[in-house]
Amino acid sequence: MTETASTSAGTTGAQPGLKIERVFSTEGTHPYDEITWERRDVVQTNWKTGETVFEQRGVEFPDFWSVNASTIVTTKYFRGAVGTPERETGLKQLIDRVVGKYVEAGVANGYFETDTDAEVFEHEMTWLLVHQYFSFNSPVWFNVGTKSPQQVSACFILSVDDSMDSILNWYKEEGFIFKGGSGAGLNLSRIRSSKELLSSGGTASGPVSFMRGADASAGTIKSGGATRRAAKMVVLDVDHPDIEEFVETKWREEDKIRALRDAGFDMDLGGKDITSVQYQNANNSVRVTDEFMRAVEDGTEFGLRARKTGEVIETVDARQLFRKISEAAWACADPGLQYDDTINDWHTNPETGRITASNPCSEYMSLDNSSCNLASLNLLKFLKDDDTFDAELFVKATELIITAMDISICFADFPTEAIGATTRDYRQLGIGYANLGALLMAMGLGYDSDGGRSMAATITSLMTGTSYRRSAELAGIVGPYTGYARNAEAHNRVMRKHQAANDTVRTMHVADATVHKAATAEWAKVVELGKVNGFRNAQASVLAPTGTIGFMMDCDTTGIEPDFSLVKFKKLVGGGSMQIVNQTIPRALKKLGYDEEKIEAIVAYIAEHGHVVDAPGLKPEHYEVFDTAMGERALAPMGHVKMMAACQPFLSGAISKTVNLPESATVEEIEDIYLQSWKLGLKATAIYRDNCKVGQPLSDGGGKAKKDAESAGRGASEASLETKDVQVVEKVVYAPTRKRLPKSRTSRTTSFTVGGAEGYMISGAHDDGELGEIFLKLGKQGSTLAGVMDAFSIAVSIGLQYGVPLETYVSKFTNLRFEPAGLTDDPDVRMSQSIMDYIFRRLALDYMSFEQRSMLGIYSAEERQRHLETGSYEPIEETGSAAELMEDSSVGRVAEARNEPSRIETSDASAGRGASEASLETKEATIDPAASHDSEGHNERSVPATPAKTAHTSAELLEQITGHAVDSPLCMTCGTKMRPAGSCYVCEGCGSTSGCS
């Protein structure tokens, strides 16, 4: 795409500038004129309260941008007060504001050979952005080209020394960064431990005590913020004498949350009592060394060192400390691990200082008091029609984007002078990508497969190799970074390490072999050009969460993540929404050799079940292609670790990603993940065990109760604690035991009419025929009545599962009198005094024995007729169990009653909050064989859903379809359930994130 005007040896400014080649845009035509634009109304509401939280009408976007993308960009990135002339009204204004500033700064700083090259650069950047090929990180869209400070960085690393001045300055600097909506990380290991003396003779407070003040500050700023929560990372070295106290901080607080919750305090996320709990606003990580990890392997002792003198003041058993770290992570997901020697072995600036910390999401690792601006490519845009990756086009886009990112440092503002100085001297960049999971699926490659890892590794290598090659070219034009001279040998050594890692990649097919060949060529240029010109940037690449910007690019998957689920929740132009099957699935099936008829059948199956297991005609060996982060075919934890290990050698920084574990995972499994991550060369690892957090509204109550029982005392699994010789006084508490329904069970659907009001009842039973759940739906009901009926169904279902006899409910609810009442269409219950009266009479007839019913005076039509004929209600003979009778019953009455096509109704268990707590989730899905089409003309197999609990995001939709809870917090802005994005969470409804992406 670009080439330098000269290749002579590089003194600063020796070359005249970049010659920009036109690749994406069309000469003589502005990128905006090539596409169709339309006006949309953006109205955003909080679905819980019904309150309109944002409204702007008539905004202009390309017709191929999704409603979700345009909504998030309008609400998050448009500047100016709504309703004033200063408010931006369309995407053109937003892109022109940002790109214009980049071009202006590029010209002013000598990046382009001629004005024509600057114009081509402007058109190429505009084309890539409007066509969603890449996006800058959020601060660029917030600030660039406005009257605000030109803040472009999302990631910050601070430093703190062992003095009160430094500690108080830490509080201040962190507060300013949070105020701007960004996040910061730092290492507290320079602060003396609580086991060391002060110069005055007293004992030091220790870093954990100072964490309390910083946590309170972050919590206060978070509660007053308008854009994003305060994201922060706190790191402590494993040889710090206070390491055990640090490891236990959040662990102890989780016990406190549990105790306060059980005592009746409001400990949910955002609850009025949660502020009494400490250390909840930071991610904690332990910085471990190779020495420590080898001691863990060998079972030897490890020394904890004084901060001032470096002498060993205490020794600990390395395995016991490692065990404690893993137990804490099991109990509350903190701390994660950062592998110090691996990080600094790939450090390009060791002569300046060691890398001691990271940003909150762990992808940016560099010098203290530094920052990094990010940009991410949409990988799916580079997939060609023949399902191969367009390496040539990817190179062209990467070198253009890395040029723009470097230009941004020329005009950027920074929150502190120290951060500004370090960033301008070392010019750290963080190019990355999104949509890897969707790309691999579309190519027919499993995420957890050698082919998938090889493809990901070669793409990552090509991206970073191209970035450093362009960095070397820029160094020949505008000079290397200021700190390069003192670090030249180390920087070039790391480049050779990247090149050597690229040489070890073993390709698996033609597609990745082509990309690998291009990457090999780029790394050869990097090494040669670097010797001559040096480099413009100390760092080039990271893999960030890409939360909000992922939605801006209409990506199916974020960062390095696999696909979240096989079904998606899509907003429609003009309002409304629809459930669709991922559009990469038909493409993947075609790539795997399936014909259109089989593809349609498989997609219809996925629409109903949310997974591919037992899909008609799908070969089992192809299941792995459709594995996802959640659901029936969820990826194994080591699948995540291996993918990170495949890509890590080709990144300047690290990877924002959390290894998700099921609730049943043991401490030993966490130990193994941490150990294998070190051996595989990762720079950092974080884990999250499902349901391990108490102080936020997550997953189902059953899981929480189970967790509480398992984690009594310290919160660890049966295998997680060593037996200790202590006397325990147990308090015996008698409590009911919940009898959960099996995942697959027999259910009965009954349509009924009471006094002219139509309704439907779905009842599910245990294997022995005992009733375990009910769901009620009334025709033409309003939202309030729907909610009341859902709540009533949940309450009854929970009671049934905890052992409340059905006859108790029948005795309480029969003979209730209220409208509608009167004649029914049920021959067994001809008259009913209310809907409740009918429901429980019908349940009694279906699930109670004759003896039980007769005590309540409830008989079937046949029994009443027998009484007239013989004087006795008793049947001559009953055959078959209740479960067998149910199997013979008419289950599909609703479809017949409504006369609707192919309506399938099933009852499933263990969905998310609400219905999940009753192990009740009802799915209604009309499978329309005639596919709809989206605005791009893509064939979409739609599944308009009317579930028991209305879904508002893909996370909630996945809960309803699969019956498995998604362990994520609720969005503080719009109330919907967020979904994981790297080591953060992102909201599909409004684009809010819980981190610094």
From TrEMBL:
Residues 699-720, 872-947 are annotated as: Disordered. SUPFAM superfamilies: PFL-like glycyl radical enzymes (SSF51998). Signal peptide: none annotated. Residues 153-688 form the Ribonucleotide reductase large subunit C-terminal domain. Residues 895-906, 920-941 have a biased composition (Basic and acidic residues). Pfam families: Ribonuc_red_2_N, Ribonuc_red_lgC, TSCPD. Residues 41-132 form the Ribonucleotide reductase class II vitamin B12-dependent N-terminal domain. Keywords: Cobalamin, Cobalt, Disulfide bond, DNA synthesis, Nucleotide-binding, Oxidoreductase. The keyword Protease does not apply. InterPro entries: RdRp_reductase_class-2, RNR_2_N, RNR_lg_C, RNR_NrdJ/NrdZ, TSCPD_dom. It comes from the Bacteria. Residues 742-846 form the TSCPD domain. Its EC number is 1.17.4.1. Its cofactor is adenosylcob(III)alamin. It catalyses: a 2'-deoxyribonucleoside 5'-diphosphate + [thioredoxin]-disulfide + H2O = a ribonucleoside 5'-diphosphate + [thioredoxin]-dithiol. Catalyzes the reduction of ribonucleotides to deoxyribonucleotides. May function to provide a pool of deoxyribonucleotide precursors for DNA repair during oxygen limitation and/or for immediate growth after restoration of oxygen. Belongs to the ribonucleoside diphosphate reductase class-2 family. This is Vitamin B12-dependent ribonucleotide reductase. It comes from Nocardioides panacisoli.
